UniProtKB/TrEMBL annotation:
Pfam families: PHO4
Alphabetical list of InterPro entries matching this protein: Phos_transporter
Primary location recorded for the protein, binned into one broad class: membrane
Family per record: Belongs to the inorganic phosphate transporter (PiT) (TC 2.A.20) family.
Transmembrane segment boundaries: 6-29, 41-59, 79-98, 110-131, 151-175, 187-207, 227-248, 255-273, 318-336, 469-494, 500-518
Compartments where found: Membrane
Keyword field contains Transmembrane helix: yes
Protein name: Phosphate transporter
Record keywords: Membrane, Phosphate transport, Transmembrane, Transmembrane helix, Transport
Length: 765
């Protein structure tokens, strides 16, 4: 019998490692976003600092393991076999749930998942026990669940959303008033005091609340930290302020960058100390449970269904070697997981200082929240004195610094420092109180609060940013509900299916994990191989001509592929190919929309004598958009026809479309070569085929007219065929207009001027 539970332990160990990898891959960005978003230091430096922080946090997280042992349910009410069912259900659900949310691209939190999975699984097993005992009713459910602690944990998670947002907004607003956006021009003692406050806040909660009970801390140091916290705080503030001033004066240190490095380390420590329980707390509790039962089994032959798990209620220190191994796996995952390296854009985009293409669409709730907030702001402004309003307005004026798009940070160093400081402090407080606070919730809501206080949500972006925050929060609630229900179902299956259910569910978990890994690797490979359209940075017409050539070649190449796929999909009625083709044209259309959204910034950065370049750039984008609209219609009309199971096109129609596609492919290939090689003189040869190409399309239309009058019997086929030919004609028109624009504007004798060369010279000055 004990073999089943040995298999369960092996499964828990495997799931713990998998959960560490999957969980860290998802959660790593919680403490990397601020440092990466501000571009304070190189990515390699950030990773080294974060790795050290994760290792330290993992070694000091023992106390948090009690949450998995007794934080949600009363272990004394369950027998060993029931406890193992609960733990297995939780770990299996956690893996499958993370895989599902990763596949769907929905926001999730490992802390919320583990808490509600423990709650769901324990409730399911408790209900099975109550149903089997005629003397008990649903009212007795409270005996099995640690109601007080569970409610405290759940309320703590929900409250953290409001607290993190509010405190982040307040601290950022005060910091900005004191430092302004021109913080680098302030006296050195401003930076020194800010550094003293920030570093003291971080170190107090990391050392006093996080490390004071660690085994490597000397007893004298532990006693001092416990009895004199205010003395320690005062000495720390004074010491760090003096050290910061010396670093600035003697070494010309970039103090805000140092704060960000320390904050990243602190948040990594807090993350590992708080979230390690999410990944290995349940397996360690399962191992402890097995040890206690097996000792009783060897001594007295106690069966699993007869052994009460009261022993889990006591405090048992976690094996340091297990914590060390877990920390090592977390660090390796940080470095080698492609998901961990791919920074999650959601929180950075929603807190970005400048205007970008928004990722979320506004909704009824976001519009009304913004409208109410504007009204509230106007009411407050009526009360505030004009002198304060004028003074505070000056503090929020951003310096006009021209930098290349790829070098532009999402926000400045002050906001990044506040993000890290506030988030690490809040998470450390919760960890010291044994509350498994969600690092995802805290870091995200702090970032949202600081961006609001920093006036990053302007009138043109507020409804989109608020909608994004609401979508993310809605995803969190869905996570909680899904985790509870899924774990309850999993526990029910394991309780009744025993070994067979365990084997089946483990196989399912492995299949889904492998599928997720392969799908992610495939999508990453496609993203690396797929050409991306680039924003123009040139300052003259000739510069834009050369710079846009790669974009034109890109669109021509992808447009050729999309058109051919649509015709081939129609010919063989391949619905899968046509569906994939729709996604490709949607992606291309989105990229061109992004370029059009960048026109404002492109024109604003042009030299005065070179404004004519904007006319050329706008015209080119207009022609590209016309081309993609024609391709979009062709792709979607083809997909709709096959998806609705309409009649297949006649052989003669397919043959004519194939002939047309062949001619277009030659035209596209020649045009692509001209743009890739920057041989714009070759465009004249392409333009000479204009009349021939239009005559070809007109002949196809004429043939279909004759067929319709004599032999065509399907209105749907006729409509589709005419639509494809007319849209092909529009596609050719847009393409020829684009080529004529290039042919007329290109002047090989003029050397192209580039905007980024002007930026470089400005930076050198």
């Amino acid at each position: 019998m004990e073999n089943l539970y040995i298999y369960m332990l092996a499964a828990l160990a495997f799931l713990a490692v998998a959960d560490l990898v999957v969980g860290v891959s998802n959660d790593a960005v919680n403490f990397l976003n601020s440092a990466i978003g501000s571009k304070a230091v190189s990515f390699k430096t950030i990773m080294i600092v974060a790795s050290i922080g994760v290792a330290v946090g993992a070694m000091t997280s023992s106390g948090m393991m009690e949450v998995a042992r007794k934080g949600i349910f009363n272990p004394g009410e369950f027998m060993f076999n029931e406890i193992m069912v609960i733990f297995m259900a939780v770990m299996l659900t956690d893996i499958l749930l993370l895989d599902f949310f990763n596949t769907m691209g929905l926001p999730t939190s490992t802390t919320v998942s583990i808490v509600f999975e423990l709650l769901g699984a324990s409730v399911a097993v408790a209900l099975i026990k109550i149903y089997a005992d005629s003397s008990k009713s649903i009212i007795d459910l409270g005996n099995y669940i640690n109601n007080e602690k569970a409610i405290e944990i759940i309320l703590g998670i929900l409250l953290s959303v409001v607290v993190a947002f509010t405190i982040g907004a307040i601290i950022q607003y005060v910091s900005r008033l004191l430092l302004s956006f021109k913080f680098e021009e302030k006296p050195d003692w401003y930076s020194a005091i800010f550094s003293g406050f920030a570093v003291t806040s971080i170190m107090y909660f990391i050392i006093v609340k996080g490390l004071k009970n660690a085994s490597f801390m000397p007893p004298s140091a532990q006693e001092f930290l416990s009895t004199s916290p205010f003395t320690f705080t005062g000495i720390s503030f004074l010491a760090f302020t003096i050290l910061s001033m010396l670093a600035i004066k003697l070494f010309n240190a970039k103090i805000y960058t140092i704060i960000i490095i320390i904050g990243t380390f602190a948040l990594a420590v807090a993350f590992a100390g708080n979230d390690l329980v999410n990944f290995i707390g349940v397996p360690i509790a399962g191992y402890d449970s097995f040890q206690k039962w097996y000792e009783a089994f060897l001594a007295n032959g106690v069966l699993p269904s007869e052994f009460s798990m009261e022993g889990l209620a006591g405090k048992v220190p976690t094996n340091s070697y297990l914590l060390l191994i877990a920390g090592l796996i977390m660090v390796l995952t940080l470095w080698f997981s492609s998901k961990a390296k791919a920074v999650v854009k959601t929180s950075v985009d929603l807190s970005r200082q400048d205007e970008v293409k928004e990722r979320f669409e506004p909704n009824y709730l976001s519009r009304n929240i913004v409208r109410l907030t504007i009204g509230l702001n106007e009411s407050i402004n009526k009360v505030l004195p004009n002198s304060y309003k004028n003074w505070s307005k000056e503090r929020f004026i951003k310096p006009n610094v021209v930098v290349k798009e790829q070098d532009k940070p999402a926000f400045d160093l002050v906001r990044a420092a506040v993000n890290l400081m506030v988030a690490s402090v809040l998470i450390s407080i919760a960890t010291s109180m044994k509350l498994p606070l969600s690092t995802t919730y805290v870091t995200f809501m702090v970032a949202m609060g600081t961006s609001l206080a920093d006036r990053a949500w302007g009138s043109e972006s507020a409804v989109y940013r608020v909608a994004g925050v609401l979508n993310v929060i809605g995803g969190w609630f869905f996570t909680a509900f899904s985790a509870f229900v899924a774990a309850a179902i999993m526990a029910f299956i394991l309780y009744h299916g025993e070994g067979y259910a365990l084997a089946g569910l483990l196989v399912l978990a492995v299949i889904l994990l492998v599928r997720s890994y392969l799908a992610h690797r495939k999508s990453s490979k496609i993203m690396r191989e797929e050409d991306q359209l680039e924003k123009a940075e040139s300052s003259s017409t000739q510069g834009v001509i050369h710079e846009s050539a790669s974009n034109i070649a890109n669109v021509i190449k992808r447009g050729n592929r999309i058109y051919t796929s649509a015709i081939n999909g129609l010919a063989v009625q391949d619905l899968k190919l046509l569906k994939k083709n729709r996604k490709q044209i949607d992606k291309l259309s989105t990229e061109i929309d992004d370029l059009k959204d960048n026109i404002f910034y492109f024109i604003r950065n042009l030299d005065e004598p070179s404004v004519a370049a904007s006319n050329f750039y706008i015209n080119i984008l207009g022609h590209l958009q016309d081309m993609t609209q024609s391709l979009d219609y062709i792709s979607k009309a083809s997909h709709k026809h096959i998806n609705n199971n309409h009649k297949k096109l006649k052989f003669s129609q397919i043959k004519e479309l194939k002939d047309l596609d062949s001619e277009l492919e030659t035209l596209f290939a020649t045009t692509q070569t001209a743009f890739e090689s920057r041989s714009f003189e070759q465009i004249g040869a392409v333009l000479e085929t204009k009349t021939e190409m239009f005559d070809l399309v007109r002949n196809k239309i004429q043939k279909q007219v004759e067929r319709t009058r004599s032999e065509e019997s399907s209105p749907k086929n006729t409509t589709l065929y005419f639509s494809l030919l007319l849209e092909t004609k529009d596609l050719l028109t847009a393409m020829m207009n684009l080529l004529e624009e290039y042919y007329q504007s290109h002047d090989s004798s003029v050397k192209p001027a580039r905007l980024n060369s002007r930026v470089g010279s400005d930076q050198e000055e």
